[in-house]
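Tokens in:
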């Protein structure tokens, strides 16, 4: 009798186990299907943003003929020494109000989302851009793209200003026309999260803002043994390479602007699928230069995997 009860008990447990397994596998299958269903939506959102950027770029390109005649008709619009290097020009544009008015193509197209208005010269206010920031940045997929940053053939640059406080992003379109740089349009993204999480940058900008703002979050996203490169203070031309432990990071970490980020796009390719990002930070009119390399680990978490402080 005892054996018969034991058998029934084992049979009941077996049935429960089978039922649990079926339910678990069913939920797993449904979850996988739901996960797959979200991918086309995310892809569509990314494509929608990129298509919008393409449309705006094409509209700006259509203005090129009139911009050419503008340069011919205004004697003051002549190449200056700062036009040889866009970063030099951008700094001069940010601090010199007369140059800014001269190098802004009025009436200036202003895109807010997908709507268009025009700003007349008398309504324009000095945009300080770089004055508020100790550095600007370049976002790359890998180190191989950094040769683009020293190219002399750059004729079109997009400057993005990510504002953490107001959750906003605005983008400036600069173009070199007959040897002179001109601001040809400004675009205000509908909202900060749309630009960062659904564009080719993926969610990296959102991660970067947390990384810059939160010292604890920052340390949690540093590789346990971090390759570190810096310049030998005693021998300026020498490079020191070593490794620091993540626990030492607070002693080495640089000052990072926490309320905004200025990013320059020279045409570098950024894949939304890339698991690598290189952030190059360059000082505005100074020798400040940092390279921070990030990789996404198997848990889909960004980690700082290499740190180079190579400024002069």
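Residues out:
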């Amino acid at each position: 009798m005892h054996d018969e009860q034991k058998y029934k008990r084992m049979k009941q447990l077996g049935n429960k186990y089978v039922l649990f397994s079926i339910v678990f596998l069913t939920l797993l299958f449904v979850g996988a299907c739901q996960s797959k269903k979200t991918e086309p939506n995310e892809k569509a959102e990314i494509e929608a943003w990129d298509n919008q950027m393409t449309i705006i770029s094409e509209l700006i390109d259509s203005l090129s003929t009139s911009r050419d005649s503008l340069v011919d008709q205004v004697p003051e619009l002549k190449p200056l020494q700062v036009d040889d290097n866009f970063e030099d020009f951008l700094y001069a544009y940010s601090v010199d109000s007369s140059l800014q008015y001269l190098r802004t193509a009025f009436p200036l197209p202003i895109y807010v989302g997908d709507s268009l208005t025009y700003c007349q010269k008398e309504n324009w206010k000095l945009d300080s851009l770089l004055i508020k920031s100790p550095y600007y940045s370049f976002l790359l997929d890998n180190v191989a793209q950094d040769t683009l940053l020293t190219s002399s053939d750059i004729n079109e640059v997009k400057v993005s200003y990510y504002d953490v406080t107001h959750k906003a992003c605005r983008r400036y379109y600069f173009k070199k026309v007959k040897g002179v740089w001109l601001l040809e349009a400004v675009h205000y993204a509908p909202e900060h999260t749309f630009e960062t999480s659904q564009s080719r940058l993926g969610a990296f900008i959102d991660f970067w803002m947390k990384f810059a703002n939160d010292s604890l979050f920052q340390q949690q996203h540093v590789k346990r043994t971090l390759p570190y490169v810096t310049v030998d203070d005693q021998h300026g031309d020498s490079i020191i390479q070593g490794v620091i432990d993540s626990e030492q990071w607070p002693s080495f970490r640089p000052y990072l602007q926490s309320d905004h980020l200025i990013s320059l796009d020279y045409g570098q390719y950024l894949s939304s699928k890339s698991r690598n990002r290189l952030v190059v930070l360059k000082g505005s009119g100074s020798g400040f230069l940092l390279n921070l390399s990030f990789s996404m680990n198997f848990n889909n978490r960004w980690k700082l995997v290499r740190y180079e402080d190579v400024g002069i």
